[in-house]
Every structure is written in structure tokens, then in C-alpha cells.
Design brief:
Elements: H1 2-118
Length: 119
């Protein structure tokens, strides 16, 4: 009877161990599934990171291009301002010359009129 009790107890322990083993196998399967999900997430993150890096490179290149364009625009504006200032000076000088020439032109017209009267 004692042997049967011990055998029965051992059988119960064996069943408990098998149940624990099955639970452990189930947990391992779940962990493997989670690991697979995590690997997929990591792969997706790596793809996103690569996309982000490409985007950042593109933005940096566009920023450099924008900066170059701004420098070129600034240079052109400076040239345009210098040209405008020079043009303004020339126009002012032309106006001064026209003012200086005006009395002579008036005298020339008067002289022509006088010559026409003599004919």
C-alpha cells in the first residue's frame, strides 16, 4: 500500500511536471512569437531610420541649395543697388548738363530766329 501511495504520489508529481513543462513550452512559444514580432518591429524601425536619414540628407542638400541661392540673390541685389546708384548719379549729371545747356540752346534758337528774320 505504501508503495502504491508513493507510486501514486510520483505519478501526480510526474503529471504536475508534465503540466509545468507544457506551460513552459507554451511560454517559450509565446516568447518566440514575441521575439519574431520584435524582430519585425526592429526591421521596420531600421527602415524608418534609413528613410529618415535619406530625408535629412535631402533636406540638408536643399538647405545648402537654398543658402547658395540666397547668397547669389544677395550678390545680385548688391550689384543691382550699385548699378541703380550709378544710374542715379548719371541721371543727376545729365539733368545738370541739360540745365547748363538750356541757356545756350535758348541763345541758339534766338540766333536762328534772328538769322531767319534777316533773310
Amino acid at each position: 500500500a505504501a508503495v502504491r501511495e508513493k507510486a501514486s504520489a510520483l505519478a501526480g508529481i510526474s503529471e504536475s511536471l508534465q503540466a509545468v513543462e507544457k506551460q513552459q513550452e507554451l511560454k517559450i512559444s509565446l516568447l518566440e512569437a514575441k521575439l519574431g514580432e520584435n524582430a519585425t518591429i526592429v526591421a521596420d524601425c531600421l527602415k524608418l531610420s534609413a528613410s529618415r536619414d535619406a530625408l535629412m540628407t535631402s533636406l540638408e542638400e536643399r538647405g545648402n541649395t537654398w543658402h547658395e541661392l540666397m547668397l547669389e540673390t544677395g550678390s545680385r541685389l548688391q550689384k543691382a543697388e550699385a548699378t541703380s546708384a550709378q544710374s542715379h548719379k548719371l541721371n543727376k549729371r545729365l539733368l545738370e548738363l541739360a540745365t547748363e545747356v538750356e541757356p545756350f540752346a535758348t541763345d541758339m534758337r534766338k540766333a536762328q530766329e534772328d538769322l531767319l528774320k534777316l533773310d
